[in-house]
Amino acid sequence: MKTFSFRIHSDRTIKAALGRGMENVPAQFPELFGRADKVCLVTSSDAPPSLRARALALFPEGARPHAYYWLPPSDKAKSLAQAGALCEFLFEHGFSRSSLLIAAGGGAVTDLAGFAASIYMRGIAWISVPTTFLAQIDAGLGGKTAVNLAGAKNIAGTFHQPALAVCDTAFLDSLPHAELRSGAGELVKYAIIGPGELMRTVSRDLRKVLAGDRAALTACVSACAAYKLKLVAKDERDERGVREALNFGHTAGHAFEAMSGGKLPHGEAVARGIRFALIASRETGILSKADFKRLDALVDALRLRPAAVRRDFRRFLALVSRDKKARGASNRFVLAAGPGRLCPAEDLDAPLLKRAFEGALK
Ligand SMILES: NC(=O)c1ccc[n+]([C@@H]2O[C@H](COP(=O)([O-])OP(=O)(O)OC[C@H]3O[C@@H](n4cnc5c(N)ncnc54)[C@H](O)[C@@H]3O)[C@@H](O)[C@H]2O)c1
């Protein structure tokens, strides 16, 4: 197990434990668990039984048993109503400001449970235990919590850092291949936005990750999670432009995800969003054809299935203009000038966007 601690403010750090097959985490972080009067373990109703067993190996029950709460599967969990229902459950079960919430699941569980933890009694401590590949390299880290509104992604949310993030790649043994491929979409993002070393790790391990190779999964989780936490520590609230790199592929990706009505997994939508951003970068002339070919080959390696998205360009434009990152512009995207070289671009014209839209959904 590797443990990481990044200082955000003089009085606050982000803590994470990364590795495979950990046990009894509270014994290693007594300062985080000693004070908790009650613990609630939040998972999703469709998670396999092995997920709860692994979560209990990580967080064994003490003299007082945990409370258990099950959320509906995937993004069905991410609504204000679900957050309210979880808060009511905590209240009815006597949870106080000294209680602890443990969110063990994919990004939908960590987004919703983190959101509920941030509003319950104006904020209680929570532990993020991401159990999908995508959530271990991205969603379960960094303290952004969210629910969807009116069919659009992550419109209401908070920043609420987990007291600890625990990425145990043993959870991934039960992960279906489609979820590995979805996570690999975010992995490609890291290769493009990160330093050369991250590009080398991902290029070496991408195919092995898709084949479920345990060593490659653990190596990629360690490298990507550490890189994300480093960016988050520099720009916790996404105000300085550092954290914006993590949105590469996400503006178009979120629109594709919303347009699919939930049929397109998040990481696959992001992979299409990455392709969109690469085409737009080439078309604006900031990305050379050679670099485009090299970076787009990483998306190709994912062997994406045909996208279950209606080719409705008007709806796409409406969604990207309402994206919370548009900041009043008609559209705003993170583009790439090359590996590790990103720049925001605003108000791109419709014909260029249409070419990128069509290329991304091919
Ligand atoms: N907060 C952030 O910074 C951030 C970043 C990226 C994505 N997200 C959000 O994350 C969500 C996507 O997360 P996701 O890809 O983890 O999908 P998900 O949470 O929808 O989970 C996918 C499926 O995998 C199952 N599952 C989870 N762990 C499993 C395991 N170990 N074995 C078998 N099945 C398992 C779940 O029950 C679910 O059916 C989206 O809502 C997205 O918006 C948030």
What would your notes on this structure say?
- There is one protein chain.
- The chain has 362 residues and is an alpha/beta fold.
- Helix content is 46%, strand content 20%.
- The strands form 3 sheets. A 7-stranded mixed sheet has the order 1-2-9-6-5-3-4, sandwiched between helices. The protein has a two-stranded antiparallel ribbon with strand order 7-8.
- It is globular, with a radius of gyration of 20 Å.
- The mean pLDDT is 94.
- The site of nicotinamide-adenine-dinucleotide has 32 residues, from helix 5, helix 6, strand 8, helix 7 and helix 11.
Mean pLDDT: 94
Q: What name is given to the CATH topology of the largest domain? A: Dehydroquinate synthase-like, alpha domain
Major sheet characteristics: 7 strands, mixed
- Tally of alpha and pi helices: 14
Q: Quaternary arrangement of the chains shown? A: single chain
Distance between the termini: 41 Å
Portion in helices:
40-55%
In short:
The protein has 14 helices and eleven strands. With 362 residues, the protein is α/β, with parallel strands linked by helices.
Highlighted features:
362 residues; alpha/beta; Rossmann fold; Dehydroquinate synthase-like, alpha domain; 2 domains; 20% strand; binds nicotinamide-adenine-dinucleotide
